[in-house]
Structure formats: C-alpha cells, structure tokens
Amino acid sequence: MRALGYERTGAAGEVLVQQDIDRPEIGPRDLLVAVKGISVNPVDVKLRANRDPQGFGTLGFDAAGVVVQAGAEVTGYRTGDEVFYAGDVTRAGSNAEFQAVDERIVGRKPASMDFTEAAGMPLTTITAWEMLFDSFRLTEGDGTGQSLLVIGGAGGVGSILIQLAKRLTGLTVIATASRPETQDWVRKMGADHVIDHRQDLVAQMRDLNIAPQYVASLTGTEQHWPAIIELIAPRGHVALIDDPASLNILPAKPKALSVSWEFMFARPMFGADMLAQRDLLNRLSAMLDAGDLQSTVTRRADSLTLQTLAAAHELQESGRVIGKQVLPGLSA
C-alpha cells in the first residue's frame, strides 16, 4: 500500500517521502480502516522535526474511513462501518491507504460530514473534552458563576474547547486571539470575551473584572506563565498541552493552584480506560449531526500528495492556522 512518511528528521519539504509498504496486520481488538480523510496536527510536525523514526515512519493522528476488516475480538464494529478516530502515537499513522487502530478509541463518523471534514474533529475534541472533564474534573452543567481562560483560542483545540465549554458547562469563556480574523473566529465559536495574548493579559483580565478558576494554556505556556499565576483565582487549575522547556511551578503554591498536562494519547499508550474515547467520539458525532457543535475545519486540500502534505505541515508550523486543516486520505 502507499504511505507518506519520513526516514529522518528535518523540514517537511525535505524529508517527507512516499513509499510502498505492507498493509498492517491487525490484532484481536483492531480494525483495519481504508483511510479516506486525514488532518494535520501539531504532533505531526513535532514528531517529524524531532523524533528519529528508526526507518520509515508514517505520521497522521486523525482519520476518517471505512472498516475493511475487524479483529477476532472486535464487538463494536463490522466491515463497511464508517468511523473516525485520533489514533495512537505509538503506532503507524493515517497518512497511508490503510491503518490498524484499536476499536476502543474509534467512534462512528458523523453522517452529516464527508470523510475529509470528519477527520478534522477527533484529536482536538478528545483533548478539549479530557481537559474539561478529566483535568478540571468538571461535570456537565458545572461552572455557573465560574470562568475559563483559553490561551490560544483560535487553534484546533481552542476552537472546540470553547464550544464544549459553552454547550456542556455553565462557564464564562474568555479566549485569547491576537489578529482581527482570529478574534472574529473565537467569537464565532462562542467566546464570551476576547483578549489579546500579545498584550498584557493581567491588565486585560482586570479590565474585565474576572479572575478565572480555570486556565487552558494551549500555546506559549512558558511565556505566559507569570501572567497566569497572577491572574488566576486562588485554588484555580491550570491545564496545558504544549511542551515548555522549563516550568517553575513553585509560584503556584501561594494560591494553592493545581497544574496538570492533558495528553490525549495517554489512554491508548497505556491501555487506560480506552472506551472513554470511543464514548466521547460517539457523543461528538451525535452532537455534530444534531447541529449542537460546528465544524472547526477552515482549510481543506483537494488531494493528499507529498506537496500538499508538506504545505499543510509548513502552515501548521507557522502558528497561523485557524481551526483545523484537512486533506483527503490515500484511499479516498
């Protein structure tokens, strides 16, 4: 089968290659999926730039497609089912004609979306959902009278996090965005207030007279850390997804803050409560079909080639992606 990947770290235009590789073998709980839609996420560019694949590495951690084979112990799906998922960072990715994926982290594709658009939703939604309900330990309907600051609100995770917080909790949502187009976007996603992360965050939050109980730091955590400590409410909770080179959490002690990382691959990596991701993806699918959530896709390519994939990686690295960018799969 055809696959797009890399054999050495480096710039996308220099290291991405196409190879013919064997169709993956599936385990007893696996599905073999013909991949018909993919998206590009920060994890794709981080791995391509920094992790030696020790041979040929297939990237891609969002996909939508059709089940062509089910393992002997699979109970939730059968051949012909249309599915979507975010995959497992320890296994071969979705930039291939076929992918093997554990059924416990797979949801049913929204009927209202084509495969390409559907592929833009799983990874970011799982991340946002787990941040709200696992990291912050909220339950649906919680948060009335409290607030959430989303730093980096116009990206893929921020775009769906704002929607989930507004739809499923009572939180007031403040999102950061620095350009007119990104500020318009986060308002469209449902943010109650918008501030500029290139300006003084503490002063802007004081102008709003809000000390948030929750901060979702989606980008630039190391840069914004002193401001986060100053503006957050005592006994607040900071959750982050990026990779600061260093982070001194001692300043969080006087306010008795909680600090946690969200990493949606933790469940499949360690086999921990994996069915939770199937459940939330099926919930996401139903909410999208009902119109309760809107797509975060803003950019889609007409085909998946080395050139279009490299362009998507380069745009992702630029830090100027609004929402999500998607491409057809190699089996489309």
Automatic annotation (TrEMBL):
Query: Transmembrane helix among the record's keywords?
Result: no
Which subcellular locations apply to this protein? Cytoplasm
A Pfam family found in this protein is ADH_N
Q: What SUPFAM superfamilies does the annotation carry?
A: GroES-like, NAD(P)-binding Rossmann-fold domains
Q: Which UniProt keywords are listed? A: Acetylation, Cytoplasm, Metal-binding, NADP, Oxidoreductase, RNA-binding, Zinc
At the top level of its lineage, which domain of life is listed?
A: Bacteria
Q: Which residues form the Enoyl reductase (ER) domain?
A: 10-327
Record InterPro entries = ADH-like_C, ADH-like_N, ADH_Zn_typ-1, ER, GroES-like_sf, NAD(P)-bd_dom_sf, Quin_OxRdtase/zeta-crystal_CS, Zinc-ADH_QOR/CCCR
Q: Which GO terms describe its molecular function?
A: oxidoreductase activity; RNA binding; zinc ion binding
Q: Name the predominant localization.
A: cytoplasm
One Gene Ontology cellular component annotation held by this UniProt entry: cytoplasm
* Stated family: Belongs to the zinc-containing alcohol dehydrogenase family. Quinone oxidoreductase subfamily.
Q: How does it assemble?
A: Homotetramer.
The name under which this protein is listed is Zinc-type alcohol dehydrogenase-like protein
What is the originating organism of this protein? Paracoccus homiensis
